[in-house]
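User: Hey, quick favor. My workstation is busy. Could you predict this chain's structure for me?
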Amino acid sequence: MDPADDEHTDSTEADSNTPTKELNSGRLPRMPDCLMHWLTPVLFAIILLAAGCFLASIWRMPLRPVSWQTINPFWPPSWPFNYHWPSKDAMALCATIAGAGFAFSTWQQRSHDNAVREQDKLRQEQAESRAREDREKQRNLDEIRRLEQIERDEYWKRREQIYQLLGSKNPGLRLGAVALLAELADSAAHSTLLNTTEKQQLQRHIIDTLCLQVRHEGLCIQEEGDKREHTTIQQNILTSIFQRINHTQLDSSVANWSESTIGLNDCTIFPPISIRSIVTNSTLDLRGTTFEKRVEISESIIKCILWTDAYFNSRLDVTNSSDIGMPHPPTFGKLIHFRDTTIRSAHAPDRFIIPLVPNKQKLNIEFTRCRFYDRSCKCPRTCECRLNSNTNTCQCSTENTCTCENTCINTTLMITTPHEPHEEEEHYPEITIRNCTVGRLRILPTEIGARTTIKSNLIHDTLQLFIGFRKATDAVRTYLRNIDKLITLEDNVIQIPDNPRLSPIVFQSNTYANIDSVISFNNMSLRQGVESERESKVSFQKTTTSFDLFHFTTLPSSDHRDTLKISWDTGSPSSTYHKALACSIKERENIFKVQSAKIQHLDFVTQAYDTTRKFMSEYAMETDWPDDHFSVTCAVEDIEQSNCYIVYNGDIPYAAFVLNPGSDANNPDKVVIWRSNMDYYMIQRISPANGEAVAHSIFDYAATRTNYLRCLTHEQNNFLRHALEVFGFKKCGTFTANDGSIRVAYDWIKEPDLRNKL
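Assistant: No problem, here it is.
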């Protein structure tokens, strides 16, 4: 049976965008495929005709008198109905019913076919619509690409035209080209047709072109204009650059160069430069550039400035809460001044180096109220200042204030001079650091010549002065230039941790004697702990005239209970004996232990005695044991008499000494007036084998054995005499020994414990 071609009048019309659910909402449900065969309407009509004929044959006929139990289910004679032939009207009715069923079935099948045809038509229309949309998108994309290419070609064409103008000898045309180039950068930055890579490439070309033009104008070619015209062009270029590297301009119509490197190196810049209120992540490359006029940077935050070999004919001023990153400051010019500035090391993560390079012209470098910071926090992950344990950022860095014991973001400041000798007519820069905050301060001149003033600063951890740093002795020269004090250390406060590991102040010179003659040391103080406001004054004295050895100690305040009690020695010790008898900040750690020597320690004791004997002979100081006893026999005798002791640091022996009770064969009782006649112990033969401050541990141990100690030493043995006096020994007199040398007698009396009196 062929499907009908007419559409159902109740069908819902829809375009290509109508959902399939809406199309089927006004139609009958889809019939199963098994019922959509062409014989289905005929079969349905026959069934209706048979049913109608059956009803017509029994209509209004009484039942047979047969009981239901006797009905034969397999043959009609036993059926209880009375059959008769249907009438003409009944037959017509049956045919009508069968025809109606046939018509209904045919209509249902036709409706189903129309719905399927409409769905196929809709799918085709949707496919055609998508194809039209794809073709339209492709046409739009091709058009955009065509416009992009046109705009790209236009940009590069304009750039080439500007290049031609920049090469003109007419300064007016070059000035106009600078404005056009800046305008081109701004329009390209906001273009919707160029992709990100193309924008970055074009911006990089424009930046490089402007920097090259600054360098070209600095040549001051007379054929291209006078100096005033060259200056004007440079001024306009620099203004355009500084405007576009500023973070605050990101929402404006100008281009964003805040992450770019600005290569203004190897130029001569004529106009004065003023950088105000600029915040940028750009790197300003000013290496080898000469600035004819003043350069001022104020209220600005600049990620990095490179100015190696930059020369300032006038002055450089960095002021007013600026924050500048740099590997080192400029060192050529007349005046370099940083004031109220945070200085961050741009290259070395844990130090900031100020190289004092000699030059023909006198230069002053000044840092006033500056802060020298690291790029990252040095605190451990568990420190409270950490904002996040997985990063190197901390609260101290964000607030620009160190509140941690290990000084956190305060960086080490190093002042150095070159290793190569300079010419006589050259001058070292004079550097002044005043009212600044630093981590460690290390002054490392290879030769004395640079006048250095360190005044009223807060220094964390330690201040170190090493003269002749990494330089051979015979290559060092001293340039006093009629200046009494070349290094001034005054009014500084050194903040040390609660458990200091380094001496707060260290002086050392491997190449120059009497360094105290060039140092002005005055009014220095120590402060222990971050939160402490207590300051203890530090005294400074030289312990011997033969060597640069110095003793530092804190002075008692009016309230003795509030005085920081700490002392240490520093200088240029040249032997193990020097180092062993020096006072040290490590004495407070109690790292040394004393044990009685046994016969198995004979080799170490003999070695220690021999080392000390050689030192005494080198400096014309006789030891306190005779020549004929200085041998293994002497060491064996001391050990067997249980008078010999060894100082240990862990399992390592560091020194040997003798603690002898009672009198000594060389005891000058008739000459020396001792302060007490009580029983005593005599300390003898202090013989270090390693360079550590062991003297204090030896005296401490001896003080636990008795209340009264005595010691004899050579008059020239300033190292031992100093160690005795620092511990509390008092000089009781001098006498002449049997060998003709002058000896000095010391004794020590334990102070009574006030708690026992109470």
